[in-house]
Amino acid sequence: MLSKKNIYQDYLDDLIRLLSDTSIVIDTTTKMKKKIDNMQFFMPVIGEFNSGKSSALNQFLKTEVLPVGITPEIELAIELYSAVETKMCVQKKDGNLITYAEIEWESIKADAEQTQVIQLYFNNIILDKIKPFILVDMPGINGSLPEYHHFINNEYLQKGVYFLVVISVENGAISKSLSAYLSQLKKLDKPFAILINKIDLKSENEIKEIAEYIREQVTHEFGKNYPVTILDKDNKSQLSNFISSLDINKIMDDLFLNDLKDHAHEILNKISALKRGLKNSSEENQTDIFKLDADFQQLQYNYERILADEDNFDAVKITQRCAKDLINQLKQKSNDLAYLAIEDKNQQAFLNEVFRIGEKSINSTLKQQLEYVNEEVAESFSLNLTSFQFLKMQNTNFESKGLKKIVFGILSKLLEYIAMIIRPLKSFIQDYRVEQFNIKFQQDLIPEIKAQIEMLLPECIEKEFHQCIQQIKNKLENELQKTKSIIENIEQERQQQNVDSNVAIAQLNEVEQKIKQLTENVLYVGV
């Protein structure tokens, strides 16, 4: 039985072949085919430092390939590949790639701060069995390099297709920092499973109680679609069984099916536009071209008006709302933060909690503000476009999907700023009592955080907003140009007397029916 990846590859090959007999540009179809061809099924294994991630993976793989007990300062993302020959590829932050013929952990430790990702290749039958999944041993959620942690985890938030979340039975529950990360996974529709580890540290009854509590916690916070599994002490057979039970075809559908359906709909609408141009008289086509030219000018006017209209988007006001909401959250949590700062010798738990609060608060505020902006911008872009209805029929859909992603882009950058802001807090944490630290935190440090956010965030928001608006404009211009090119090509062929409209329409009808049938058989099977 063919996998969905093979089925979708064959489907797009057939689509490209059918479209080659028309004047429709196939660049988007070719890009989709390339994306599926190059698809990698990364399975990040995440958890807090000392949850036993690396040890569990070593036991699962039946080899001590991953270093255990590495200090958090040099925790790195490690991708695991099955290969005949052993080698280690080290991707540096400057873009260079260094390859070792053997696994050289001491060399990595010496230059960890300049390392981005490690790729391990070694002969392992278990990695072979779980293909196409690629396990990634991720840095600890509460490691002591928050900038690297947020950068690399954001990378795999996008690339990961399924996440394994390791929790030590010692913790007894999902921590706040881990809960914040899982909330991100849920927002991005990324599936995950909870794996309870280190069960030798508790009695059988305690393990059952902890597992049940975590299940209730997961159901309450995230829903019922996220399994909770207890890993056995030695060979981690439950992990092997769990990975084997995952439906790779469902994952492919989740990743690509809706996009493929939208693309098929867009192609069929372009065929309809092509047939319309062939049926129209030359005068009618010239009228459509005139309308499209007018829309190019109107689109540029709308674009400039959107950027100039402060009522549409005010980065300073949005920043002020973000800062106000964050400060309120920090004040509400100041006692908890003070206890963390006093009790934790290296203050890492304190820093991570400030990160978590900032992430949750700013993400929530930006999302609320930008969803409103999204509606306003979509309406403003469509204003006075004479061919707008025709373009909508072609699935132009200029609703700002990119604008909804702005939150993620801004937040990734903002967290780097927050790390810079809170790092000096360590110097304030000596032998304070909780009440004294609380006063110091509220009077001196919270205003500094607010000031830094109000200074740094507006430029970041404006840059992301402008890029997003430019992308929407480019998309609309591209659709206008494609429609215009279809009509102009028809008229050019008419003038050269190289086209019989009736014959061309009949050919397009045949292609259209074949594409409909192909789409029905592949994308709508079982519906």
Structure description:
Helix 6 packs antiparallel against helix 17 (406-422) and helix 13 (334-343) packs across helix 18 (434-495). The model is unreliable at 388-407 (pLDDT under 50). Helices cover 64% and strands 10% of the residues. A nine-stranded mixed sheet has the order 4-3-5-2-6-1-7-8-9, with helices on both faces. The longest helix is centred in the C-terminal third of the chain and has 62 residues, at 434-495. The chain is α/β, with parallel strands linked by helices. The protein has two domains: 41-246, Rossmann fold (3-Layer(aba) Sandwich); 299-495, no CATH class. Strand 8 (192-197), helix 8 (204-222) and strand 9 (228-230) form a beta-alpha-beta unit. 32% of the residues are buried.
Ordered list of secondary-structure elements with their pairings:
Elements: H1 4-19, H2 27-37, E1 41-47, H3 53-61, E2 77-82, E3 87-92, E4 97-100, H4 105-110, E5 115-122, H5 125-129, E6 133-137, H6 146-159, E7 163-168, H7 176-187, E8 192-197, H8 204-222, E9 228-230, H9 237-245, H10 248-279, H11 282-308, H12 315-332, H13 334-343, H14 348-382, H15 388-393, H16 401-404, H17 406-422, H18 434-495, H19 501-523
Parallel strand pairs: 1-6, 1-7, 2-5, 7-8, 8-9
Antiparallel strand pairs: 2-6, 3-4, 3-5
List keywords for this structure.
single chain, 527 residues, alpha/beta, Rossmann fold, nine-stranded mixed sheet, 9 strands, 10% strand
Order of SSEs? HHEHEEEHEHEHEHEHEHHHHHHHHHHH
Roughly what percent helix? 55-70%
Question: How many DSSP E strands?
Answer: 9
User: How does the major sheet shape up?
Assistant: 9 strands, mixed
Number of helices: 19
Q: What's the rounded overall pLDDT mean? A: 80
Helix/strand/pairing category? alpha/beta
CATH architecture of the largest domain: 3-Layer(aba) Sandwich
The best one-word shape is globular
Strand content: 5-15%
- Kindly provide the radius of gyration, computed on alpha-carbon positions and rounded to a whole number of angstroms: 27 Å
- Give the low-pLDDT segments: 388-407
**Strand order in the largest sheet:** 4-3-5-2-6-1-7-8-9
The CATH superfamily of the largest domain turns out to be: P-loop containing nucleotide triphosphate hydrolases
Number of domains: 2
CATH fold description of the largest domain: Rossmann fold
How far do the termini sit from each other? 20 Å
